[in-house]
Design brief:
The protein is of the alpha+beta class. The chain has 8 helices and 18 strands. The protein has a 5-stranded antiparallel β-sheet. The radius of gyration is 30 Å and the shape is elongated.
Length: about 375
């Protein structure tokens, strides 16, 4: 790729052969002496971020870009003699993969506690899949990837899985009264959980592109109770149930009655109403060419670096953990809420069982009680 040339200029580009890399750094061995005039080629599904003298300089979109550093061919080598012919003007380029990473698995390693309104304390197992994509390349590098030469979806999957399970426990405790109400609500639960997780993902420069719940499994004794409840719900009126049985017996007897049996069969057929209709197939909306500014909520071009209405920076370096405000690289305090820019989120400790939970957790993952 021409990243170690002593005299010639570099030509930087990268292809993801595995399909699982979120980020890749050039040079691969660390920083390099990228020279003035080096060429950077970025594909449509990528973003390029150049770090020069330890700081992120800019995020490059698709196309060919000319890089500008203080390293001049031959001359820099001569001037860097005091440093062992190694230029102190170090630079590296990170290629960020902007495609959607699909089929990432999430699930409960151990059963989570859920306080059911009718069954009491129940231990549940849940599993599903989710999709992610990078929406803020600089923020993703600074908060999650760091100086790693490459970062794959497998490396981030385990942590995101724990975040999803923690928020799932909170959301289930707030929105679901009893497991008897669970059938038919998987899509609504998945959509609500995805919205709840937005803040957890966006602080790393990630977007949760989709989340799906494939199963929520209670213990066998609870499954038996649900089955018994389902059987009882079928027989809502014992008198009507007895009449139905009698009618079925009459129908069976009428099968041997010739014309009378045919008349009964015709009558039964006319009692079948059309109960299903109006089903519509929703087509996914096409991706818009505009996005909303997180500060003033106005629509702006998707490739805008600053909001034309409020001048809010769109390329995020880091965010305030308290209010989500975009912070500049040298900010010491948040200009919106006044919180220290370097403040870290605090782990939530359950006052009942003293177990550690993720920051912002409402219910304990171990005992199921409210924190």
């Amino acid at each position: 790729m021409g990243v170690d040339n002593v005299i010639l200029l570099e030509n930087l580009e990268w292809f993801d052969e595995t399909g699982r890399e979120l980020l890749h750094r050039l040079p691969e061995h660390g920083s390099g002496e990228i020279k003035w005039g080096a060429q950077l080629t970025v594909r449509e599904s990528q973003a390029g971020v150049m770090y020069y003298k330890g700081r992120a300089c800019d995020a490059f979109g698709p196309g060919r870009h000319t890089l500008k550093t203080g390293n001049i061919p031959i001359l820099t080598k001569i001037l860097s003699a005091p440093w062992g012919l190694k230029s102190p003007l170090r630079a590296e380029v990170y290629f960020v993969n902007l495609k959607v990473f699909t089929d990432l698995k999430w699930g409960t390693r151990d059963p989570v506690a859920f306080r059911d309104a009718e069954l009491g304390m129940v231990r549940l197992r849940a599993h599903g899949v989710f999709n992610i994509r990078i929406v803020q390349p600089v923020l993703f590098i600074n908060t999650l990837a760091g100086t790693m030469g490459k970062y794959t979806s497998e490396q981030v999957e385990e942590y995101l899985k724990r975040v999803i399970v923690s928020r799932f426990n909170d959301y289930l405790g707030e929105k679901l009264r009893t497991l008897f109400d669970l059938p038919g609500h998987f899509d609504a639960l998945a959509l609500g959980l995805q919205q709840r997780l937005t803040k957890d993902f966006v602080r790393f420069g990630l977007a949760l592109d989709g989340l799906y719940i494939t199963s929520i499994t209670p213990p066998e004794e609870v499954q038996s109770a649900i089955d018994d409840r389902s059987r009882l719900s079928v027989i809502q009126d014992m008198d009507k149930f007895v009449r139905m049985k009698a009618a079925m017996a009459m129908e069976k007897a009428a099968t041997a009655g010739g014309e009378a049996g045919a008349g009964l069969g015709l009558g039964m057929g006319m009692m079948m109403p059309g109960m299903f209709g109006g089903l519509q197939t929703k087509t996914p909306a096409q991706e818009a060419e505009v996005v909303r500014c997180p500060e003033c909520d106005n629509t702006i071009p998707v490739d805008a670096r600053f909001c034309p209405y409020c001048s809010h920076q769109q390329v995020v370096v880091r965010k305030c953990i308290n209010c989500g405000k975009n912070l500049s690289a040298n900010a010491r305090f948040c200009p919106r809420c006044g919180h220290p820019a370097d403040e870290k989120p605090q782990i939530a400790v359950c006052p009942h069982c003293h177990a550690n939970n993720l920051p912002g957790a409402v219910f304990c993952n171990q005992c199921g009680r409210k924190i």
